[in-house]
Structures are given as structure tokens and as C-alpha cells.
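Please, structure for the following, as C-alpha cells.
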Amino acid sequence: MIYDLRNGGDSTRPHGVVEVQLQKGHAVSNGLKTSLYEMRAMGRQGWRKRCPGPAYFIVSREMGKLSYHWKHAFAVAESGPDSGSVINPDSGTTVESPDGGILLRIDFDDRKHSETISRGEQGTSVFSALWQADRTKIQRMAPLEYIGRYMKGWCT
């Protein structure tokens, strides 16, 4: 099972790559405990020496696509006719909702929003995300992204 990329943390919970066995209908952590970084360092040949038989790596969808924590990246109009509405920091204009109104701060509580902005004389469209990675929180990489980026051709 591939749990995460972190070291340390809660010692009562498994981290990294942990070998599990099915015992009495439950997955029990027994045997090999390593990390994706250590597996990458040992390479395919080193892995084959350590585990000569077939190996299946299982990762949950939620953990496999884990990403950065995110935060909203917008401004709020403090004066004028649009006071209290959300302003796109790239264009300086209010952000329209899909139903034709304008978005307010409360509309961002549970969703990531973005908008397409028309710019230039040719009317080129630019995508403007109204959220960004939050650098004040733990920076994390999804295990599947790590495997795809740093372990190309490692698993067959």
C-alpha cells in the first residue's frame, strides 16, 4: 500500500510504502516498510533483489491525486457600485457568476472558481484561476505524480 510521501508524523499510522497481508479478512501491515524515495534510490535492479516476486502497488484515489492545499486569490471591492463583490486580481473587474450575476465572497466557501478573461484587440481569451497554492501550509506531492515524474519506466 502506498500511503503518502511524508516521513514521521503520527507513529500509530503507516507512512510511505508498507507491505500488507490479508489476515482473517483484514489488511495487516507486516513486512517491508519503505518510502517511494528509497525505492527510487535503490532502482529497479535493487528492488528486484529485495522483492524477487511479483509486487502490486495499491494507492487510494484520494491519496494518489493528493495535491497542494489551496487558498482563494481574489480581491473584494471596498467602494463603488460593486462594493462587497469579488474582483479578479488579473483584470481588476468583478467576477460574473454562471447565471449572470456577480460572485460574492460567500460563493467561494466550498468551491474553486476561475474565469476566462478577454484581452487585447484580437479578443484573445486568458484563463485566470481565482485560487492558488497556499505556501503557508504543508507542501505535498501526490504519490502518483511523484511516480510519474521521478520513476519513469520503473514499474512494468
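The CA atoms of residues 36 and 147 lie 8 Å apart. The longest helix spans residues 36-50.
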